[in-house]
């Protein structure tokens, strides 16, 4: 991955000019410059030199009046599922990045690349070529917090050449089954089938775990058949750093045991006398089931393994850090056995929740579950690992090009809750907006004594789902509803006045069916005057899932209306210029 493509090269540029630029910026190269009309190629001795050339030169250095573009040179046959994304805002949370990448398809892996630049760089592998191509088109040049993202393909050595469209099942080329090492097959372990193991390690041991020039960590990954991400740039200055291990359950446990051995040896060498417990990070969704009724599950693991286990309090959680720390104390052997038992419980909970979520997807059409981030895939440092299949019949809210259309929802919250949603200096609403990928604004109060305030949410279905889910959750968390009281809110969506009848149905049949199906109250107020866009309001009241299901069903009805309109517009007019003839009834 050390060959570079240099684009936007002036016709006057020579090999010596390029040589001079590389020398000026102290970038080594291992071969001559191959200069063509408008572009050039050069080899770098290693990936570090190639990354430096991209970071320092691309879009920044001029040659004969033209700004050079520098990126990895990738043969067409290797432009498959792997992308490199550069110039990512340095303080961007992994959760936000994961959510952004998942909008374009299933992400198999996302690894941070160490560079000397202030901004971050990640290598991303998508599950399919089309997903990578779409992400490339949509993200390259897009602005994120005043940073323009730069996206390019990187060589995918496992890429099979694109075969003819017919002749064989998907995933098999003309020569038979894919070679070992192809995505999802062969020697490389499946990483998506199991939830990753996340551990916290003291920052002073990170260097020993990585080893000289990364030799130790490479050795661990090779021996345990795992992929290990050390999130060194997260929580700058923190006493501990998270490590994410992707592998089979055995692979995760073996890698964890090796890391504990390395830390123990480093502690002896550096005369570090404090106990080094094993700390596992787990999403709060699973912790209750790990503890068990009256703490029985946790007590059994402690008794069976001879360890002492404590779990960080709920108060430490935030909306954007849903993980709790499970601290295990004991010998390395005992901690290793306890890790196996703890992760076994967590994986069982994860599988159970995923099955329930996939069942839910059939009830809520039009949603891409990859992008929701309701399960641990949204936790920092984890790639989305939710179900990769789109729910059947997911047509609601989609334009004819296949991309989700933006929707506007007005959600009404208690006036006293506005401060909690906005947060200190507007931080919470900004984070929420980034996390969900939606525009979120609070409308001005209607009068001094207004008991409710309107939150205006603009974004595609997945963004609506995430934003509304977090708002419902925040109101519960901040005790605006009682401990045994379900959060119920009212949402308004606008529909074209000519489509309101379709939402109501003949004699109110459709709206009644909607209410029975969703458990939400759905009202289309009579005698409304359409607004300047000829739209009227539909009011939806209920708990979160009821509101979501009703919104999706109504959007599905509107999509059907739009499709029918589109088909009518496509019908040819009769030669006389009048209406097309009415089809004869059979």
TrEMBL record:
<dbReference type="InterPro" id="IPR036612">
    <property type="entry name" value="KH_dom_type_1_sf"/>
</dbReference>
<feature type="domain" description="RRM">
    <location>
        <begin position="2"/>
        <end position="75"/>
    </location>
</feature>
<keyword id="KW-0694">RNA-binding</keyword>
<protein>
    <recommendedName>
        <fullName>RRM domain-containing protein</fullName>
    </recommendedName>
</protein>
<dbReference type="InterPro" id="IPR035979">
    <property type="entry name" value="RBD_domain_sf"/>
</dbReference>
<keyword id="KW-0963">Cytoplasm</keyword>
<dbReference type="GO" id="GO:0003723">
    <property type="term" value="F:RNA binding"/>
</dbReference>
<dbReference type="GO" id="GO:0005634">
    <property type="term" value="C:nucleus"/>
</dbReference>
<dbReference type="GO" id="GO:0006417">
    <property type="term" value="P:regulation of translation"/>
</dbReference>
<keyword id="KW-0813">Transport</keyword>
<feature type="compositionally biased region" description="Low complexity">
    <location>
        <begin position="566"/>
        <end position="577"/>
    </location>
</feature>
<comment type="similarity">
    <text>Belongs to the RRM IMP/VICKZ family.</text>
</comment>
<feature type="region of interest" description="Disordered">
    <location>
        <begin position="560"/>
        <end position="586"/>
    </location>
</feature>
<dbReference type="Pfam" id="PF00013">
    <property type="entry name" value="KH_1"/>
</dbReference>
<feature type="region of interest" description="Disordered">
    <location>
        <begin position="158"/>
        <end position="190"/>
    </location>
</feature>
<keyword id="KW-0677">Repeat</keyword>
<dbReference type="InterPro" id="IPR012677">
    <property type="entry name" value="Nucleotide-bd_a/b_plait_sf"/>
</dbReference>
<dbReference type="InterPro" id="IPR004088">
    <property type="entry name" value="KH_dom_type_1"/>
</dbReference>
<keyword id="KW-0539">Nucleus</keyword>
<keyword id="KW-0810">Translation regulation</keyword>
<dbReference type="InterPro" id="IPR000504">
    <property type="entry name" value="RRM_dom"/>
</dbReference>
<dbReference type="InterPro" id="IPR004087">
    <property type="entry name" value="KH_dom"/>
</dbReference>
<dbReference type="Pfam" id="PF00076">
    <property type="entry name" value="RRM_1"/>
</dbReference>
<keyword id="KW-0509">mRNA transport</keyword>
<dbReference type="GO" id="GO:0005737">
    <property type="term" value="C:cytoplasm"/>
</dbReference>
<dbReference type="GO" id="GO:0051028">
    <property type="term" value="P:mRNA transport"/>
</dbReference>
<feature type="domain" description="RRM">
    <location>
        <begin position="81"/>
        <end position="156"/>
    </location>
</feature>
């Amino acid at each position: 991955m050390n060959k570079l493509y240099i684009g936007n090269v002036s016709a006057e540029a020579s090999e010596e000019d390029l040589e001079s630029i590389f020398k000026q910026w102290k970038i080594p190269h291992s071969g001559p410059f191959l200069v063509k009309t408008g572009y050039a190629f050069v080899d770098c001795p290693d990936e570090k030199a190639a990354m430096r050339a991209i970071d320092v030169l691309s879009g920044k250095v001029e040659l004969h009046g033209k700004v050079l573009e520098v990126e990895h040179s990738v043969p067409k046959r290797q432009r498959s599922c792997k992308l490199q994304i550069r110039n990512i805002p340095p303080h961007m949370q992994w959760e936000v990045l994961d959510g952004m990448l998942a909008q374009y398809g299933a992400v198999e892996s996302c690894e941070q690349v160490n560079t000397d630049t202030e901004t971050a760089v990640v290598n991303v592998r998508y599950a399919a070529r089309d997903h990578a191509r779409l992400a490339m088109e949509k993200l390259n040049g897009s602005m994120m917090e005043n940073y323009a993202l730069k996206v390019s393909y990187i060589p995918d050595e496992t890429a099979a050449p694109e075969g003819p469209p017919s002749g064989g099942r998907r995933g098999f080329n003309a020569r038979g089954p894919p070679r070992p090492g192809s995505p999802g097959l062969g020697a490389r372990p499946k990483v998506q089938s199991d939830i990753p193991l996340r551990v916290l390690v003291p920052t002073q041991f990170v260097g020993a775990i990585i080893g000289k020039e990364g030799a130790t960590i490479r050795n661990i990954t090779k021996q345990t058949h795992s992929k290990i991400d050390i999130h060194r740039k997260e929580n700058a200055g923190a006493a501990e750093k998270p490590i994410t291990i992707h592998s089979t359950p055995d692979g995760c446990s073996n890698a964890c045991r090796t890391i504990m051995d390395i830390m123990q040896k480093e502690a002896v060498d550096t005369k570090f006398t404090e106990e080094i417990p094993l700390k596992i990070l787990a999403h709060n969704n699973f912790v209750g089931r790990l503890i068990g009724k009256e703490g029985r599950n946790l007590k059994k693991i402690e008794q069976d393994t001879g360890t002492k286990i404590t779990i960080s309090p709920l108060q430490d959680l935030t909306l954007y850090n849903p993980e709790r720390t499970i601290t295990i104390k004991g010998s390395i052997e005992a901690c290793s056995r306890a890790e196996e038992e703890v992760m076994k419980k967590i994986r069982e909970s994860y599988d159970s929740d995923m099955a329930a979520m996939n069942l839910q997807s059939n009830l809520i059409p039009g949603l891409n579950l990859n992008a929701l981030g309701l399960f641990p895939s949204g936790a920092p440092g984890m790639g989305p690992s939710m179900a990769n299949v789109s729910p059947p019949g997911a047509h609601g809210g989609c334009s004819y090009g296949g991309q989700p259309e933006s929707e506007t929802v007005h959600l009404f919250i208690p006036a006293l809750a506005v401060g909690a949603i906005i947060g200190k200096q507007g931080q919470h609403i900004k984070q929420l907006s980034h996390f969900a990928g939606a525009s979120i604004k609070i409308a001005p109060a209607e009068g001094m004594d207004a008991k409710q305030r309107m939150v205006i949410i603009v974004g595609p279905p997945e963004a609506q789902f995430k934003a509304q889910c977090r708002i419902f959750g925040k109101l519960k968390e901040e005790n605006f509803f009682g401990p045994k009281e379900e959060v119920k809110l009212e949402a308004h969506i606008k529909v074209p006045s000519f489509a309101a009848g379709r939402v109501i149905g003949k004699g109110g049949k459709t709206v009644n069916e909607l209410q029975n199906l969703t458990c939400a109250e759905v009202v289309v107020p009579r005698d409304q005057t359409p607004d300047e866009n000829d739209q009227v309001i539909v009011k939806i009241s209920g708990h979160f899932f009821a509101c979501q299901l009703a919104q999706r069903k109504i959007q599905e009805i509107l999509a059907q209306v739009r499709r029918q309109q589109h088909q009518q517009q496509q019908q040819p007019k009769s030669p006389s210029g009048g209406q097309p003839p009415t089809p004869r009834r059979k």
